Amino acid sequence: MDAPSAEPAPTAPHAHAPPPIVDDRSDRDRVNHHDDGDRADHHDDGEVRALDPRIIIVERLAGGIRLLIYGGALFLAVGIALLVQRPGIAGVAAGAGFWLLIALLLGAKAVFWPVIRWRHASYRFGARGLQIRRGVLFRHQIAVPRSRVQHTDVVQGPIERSYGLATLVVHTAGMLHAAVHLPGLAHEDALGLRDQLLDDAGRDARGRDGADDDGV
Fold this sequence. Notes:
The protein is α+β, with helices and mostly antiparallel strands. Helices cover 51% and strands 20% of the residues. A four-stranded antiparallel β-sheet has the order 1-2-3-4. A three-stranded antiparallel β-sheet has the order 5-6-7. α2 crosses α6 and α3 runs antiparallel to α4. The longest helix is centred in the N-terminal third of the chain and has 32 residues.
């Protein structure tokens, strides 16, 4: 008599694997997604970088404020001159035309000049230190060696703070530019550059102290 065959063990119900996580961010978002430590390393690659484009809005707002101040002062000056001299209709028209021309020039500068300046400004941070290029009519290139850095500041004005921007101020020793300003940086980028510069300056100082101790 044949032995009864063993019945197959019941199979566990099929467990569904969780759906894969899809990263739907764009490549630019993935590249720009860094914490403060990553940003310091990200900038220490010697690549030429443009300023944050939000600086255009900040400079336009600052230009608009200057336009209100200078335009208002000029309007008062022209008005007082017209009241004192009491010219005819031709004189009033000339004074109004002069004020309008100056206001239009200042307004055009406030709108278009920030874009031109942004296109001609860049910076690079690498093994040799920080290099800044700027200037439209006259080009300026400022090089800050790592060994010359004394200390750094991150400054935010009220308009910069509202747009998440900051200015990096690098104080140097033995250079023509005792304080080098780099505006138009995202606040976290400015902090990352500051930390990297301070770390490099600290390592250079420790290296010099070690060399002095060896020479004694």
